[in-house]
Amino acid sequence: MNTPTSIPAVSRFRSFADSRAMFQNPLQILSKYHDTLGDTFRFYLGGLKEAIVTIDPAIVQHVLKTNHENYEKSDIQVKRMGHFLGKGLLTTHGEAWKTQRRLIQKGFSPKQLDALSTIMQDSLTDSLRIFDSHIQKGPVDIYPHMMEITFSMVARSLFGARLKAEDISLVSDTICTVQEFIVKQTLQPYLNPWFEVSGELRKHEEMRVRADAVLMSYIKKRRDEPPSDDLLQTLMDARYTDGEGMSDELILSESMQLLVAGHETSSNSLSWLLYLLSSRPDVLEQMRQEFDSVLGDRQVSHGDVPKLEYSTQVVQESLRLYPPFWMIDRIAVADDRVGDTVIPAGSTVIVYVYGAHHASAHWQKPEEFDAERFVKGSDKLRTPFTYFPFGGGPRGCIGLHYAMLQILMILKELLTKYDFEVPPGQTIEPRAMVILRPKHGIRMSFNGITEPATCVA
Ligand code: HEM
Q: What keywords appear on the UniProt entry (predicted)?
């Protein structure tokens, strides 16, 4: 074994001096540190808590995959989210997580995704009716619209086609408000005692209780109804090795966690995709041709995804430029070593996804949009763990195939129904919170595509 090298560090003073800028724009600060210190460096979060940041593919692979058992999810996911979301895939470790993951994975099998395609498409048709009425009035910020479309889709995939629109709104509003509160609790921990005495914490807990009650009523009702094709059924039918099923409470918290994980990621991807496409008529045209030749008037179903090769490349390239999870954080349980890099127990390790996706060592002209990077077979030529929008290793995204189906399904409808453009005079830039969002939204105008008139002889 080589002698360990120390990881280059940003001083505590510099980290503290940069902490405000880091809160405003972590991508800019982390990329600046990367340019001067290299692929792996240490800095102090808020000038206080030491963290190791890395885009080194060997270390990323080690942390997320090879020795993943030594790296647990961070406090924000386990403690803060666990407080509101209970126990589930996002908030557990070890054997409990492994068992749940095995059971829930069945809900994302190819057969199940085929069955879900119909529910997803019906939900999309309903959402597009609302979207259409908004875009008639002029340019819209696409971000909240993509949120509405993806949230309804995931909610109906979970609870079935009969989930009422007003219940979807209540649960969606609750999740958004609670998520914002969790971010506040995490970024301004000194305010937590105030949140308790001022009643802020209780207000959010009560919202959650109301949303729980709504979803629980669907779970209880389903116990007396015939089986369905949705994810709720998968959760209800799942059996542990002793033959027991999940309790209603566990089904509820797993459903909530799938809703949280499954809507904001896809809605962000779609917002960035539409933005990128608005300045690339050539790419747009090629996608439209592919949708037309593969599907004609048909809608996208799971079996079509492998045939939509070019459109998939476009989605992959957009996820490279704007990965919704711009970083993945972990805590090292025991002392560890990767090559000659030593990672002491208790270290926070930040896998800097955005940095890896924009590294000039791995991507030519990394800031340019170029879907050809993902041409079929290119993954074999790439160094592993230089591209990982869905994470990697056993805790990688369980909803990857669902997400690709969802995004392509929505794109097909939007691209074949509308022409769209970004009116000038906007500043469009990412804001890295938990998810990489458009900081000021993205206003776009949509015009219905009129079918070419057919000549009736
Ligand atoms: C473009 C869309 C999506 C992206 C980019 C994405 C990305 C990710 C990433 C990077 C992780 C790993 C996080 C970590 O290691 O800490 C993850 C985990 C997860 N994702 Fe996704 N995701 C997407 C869509 C979805 C959808 C649609 C669902 C469900 C319907 C979903 C459910 C989950 C769950 C439950 C986990 C936790 C898995 C576990 O810990 O075992 N995701 N996702």
A: Heme, Iron, Metal-binding, Monooxygenase, Oxidoreductase
